[in-house]
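Continuing from yesterday's entry. The apo prediction looked reasonable, so today I'm repeating it with pyridoxal-5'-phosphate included to see how the binding region is handled. Same sequence as before; SMILES copied from the compound registry.
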Amino acid sequence: MSIDPRHLDHLRSEGDLNISAHRQAWQQEQLDAATRHWLEEDARYFLHQSLSTPCLNVLAGSGGASIQDLQGRKYLDFHGNNVHQAGFGNPEVIAAITRQLHELSFCTRRYTNVPAIQLAKKLTELAPGKLKRVLFAPGGATAVGMALKLARAATGRFKMISMWDSFHGAGLDTISVGGEAIFRGGIGPLLPGCEHVPPPDNRHCPFSCGAACNLKCADYIEYVLEKEGDVAAVIGETVRSTPFIPPKDYWRKVRAACDKHGALLILDEIPHCLGRTGKMFTCEHYDVVPDMLVIGKGLGGGIFPLAALIAREDLNVMADKALGHYTHEKNPVAAAAGLATIEFLERENILEHTRTLGEYTLNRLREMQAEHPLIGDVRGLGLLIGVELVRDHVTRERATDEAEQVMYEALRQGLNFKLTMGSILTLTPALTITREEMDEALAILDRCLRKIGGAGKPA
Ligand SMILES: Cc1ncc(COP(=O)(O)O)c(C=O)c1O
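Holo prediction written out below.
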């Protein structure tokens, strides 16, 4: 079977390309017999899939901003799948979970429980505007699925507008609105009525907007809304994990276009909710309130799979239908984890820490940009940070091989992160990370970039 080169690019982008020589070399050099044994067992019993199995290494522990492998090596985890807002194994979250486990470990359908009610109430207090109704789900994709269903039911329309390159989860409904070839390809027809538009990414803009986004992509959404005439909702990631951060006016324009054409706006903040960007919800950076906000990942304290749909009060319109009828809908233990996580983030002023440390890190990386020819761009919001490596500052040719080398060299030195789009070092540490740990990570990056070097010229 031949591999579609677009898939190859994506696989490479995650640093999980199984045929990668760099990965093989790293594994050859770093892994002992016991780890190899468990990796073989893993590959033997799990269904293989891209970006997952076969795996890179075996983990045995985690805590704070770090993970630890079976051989006892510690890595600062600047990936963490964006679940570590409160750090790994946060003692307060674990204590709340343990207490709850001993009191009520599951909530049978038709009953409710106090932690679930308290978490729903807390989310409506935190969420902006009229976002006053909550439904929990056992994962992000299912929560996005509920949002899509609710948009259809509330508007009586079925069409959706979403972005190319976006990701909203691996379900059949969510890959239909998602825009990544590796998830959409090879499995037959997807949901009807899913119209894709270019994302607000000036680096790969079909409207050739150049150095700065001129919002033609937002105008195009309005154009499609008008031409289609009966779109139920526009769904997008408020900022992409790449990261790509749309300009300030982007979401305001899209919001206005939705209002004009009777479409709902659904914002997917599953990976960045609860503080990653320095605000509880990313839409607060844009002064825009969606009709539905979808959150997840760290909501379960980085321990429980928990996501939520938070919808406008007047979207409470499916009382006689099943919207998200999931077994663990009001799981008291997951809710206790969520409550403890939010309490911790608020009490410890983690959002302010995220903003300050994010700013500090961006400045340090920009200083490094002046010294390292490989760095073509540094961007971020809070502790969602991207360092794009290029071979040439004029053509902006992606330094994919170099990025992979930097990634594996960083692993050798105790820093874990992932690559996106093949050449962007995507840095998402625990929000509890200390300045000292950040300095250690930056020093590792500095050494790795120095070692791998590059043929480009500083900007
Ligand atoms: C933007 C976005 N939406 C949805 C999801 C899906 O969440 P889950 O893996 O919990 O289904 C993810 C997961 O990475 C995501 O990043």
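Comparison notes:
- Residues 1-17, 455-459 have pLDDT under 50 and may be disordered.
- The first strand starts at residue 59 and ends at 63.
Will overlay with the apo model tomorrow.
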